[in-house]
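Checklist before submission:
- one chain only
- standard amino acids only
- sequence pasted in full

Submission:
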Amino acid sequence: MASPRLFAPDPIDLADPSPYTALPYYAHIVIGLLAFVAIGVALWARKGSSLHIGAGKVYLLSLIVVGFSSAAMLAVAFVPPLMLAAVAGLYAAISSWLALQKSRQWVVVAEAGLAIAQVAALVVFLSFAIPAIRGGAVPAPAIAVLCVIPALLLLGDIRYFLRYKEREKLRLGRHLSRMIWAVVVTIRAPLVEVVAAGLPFPQPLLVVGPIILGFGLIWYFSRKYRVPAAFVI
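Returned file contents:
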């Protein structure tokens, strides 16, 4: 395994997967594109329809495959932001699916386990990021932005578990919120590559754009489907 580094080899070269091996590298890209299509269909399909449910399942399964491909890539070159994004994306998407399940002991255990995994990922990421900040390698605001979505998800879990007796009322809002934050994590990854490739893209939009989009989508769909807006849950 290569020595850990804070950022990945950029930009992505479609003709050359190195330092990664070809299968997880290309699977990551192709299945990631499938996830984009699936979530687009799921968001705009009539809620509760077979199309919505089917597209949501494809999106969740796609993210799981992307998670495995990320793990294979991280085994070759451990890149803390990739690890943090992979865990946050899976954390958001799987907890969105769990929110729709009836209250069972396995559901509670799974929800708590996901939160613990996200805390662990955040601690590992910061163990690399803080020395990089102190050494002047990266600015602190850049690290803070990477931590925003995991922090929002964890704050949501605190609120959710404190109100767990109201789970039936919170389920739809949590499902919607978590799925949209998973989308935001998915969107941010290719945006980073766009900037790394030298294409003209406003840096402030890369930094705050996906987060603003997340809040905007939650507000829009909460109003459309008359679900209490749950930006953090």
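Reviewer check: The two ends are 37 Å apart (CA to CA).
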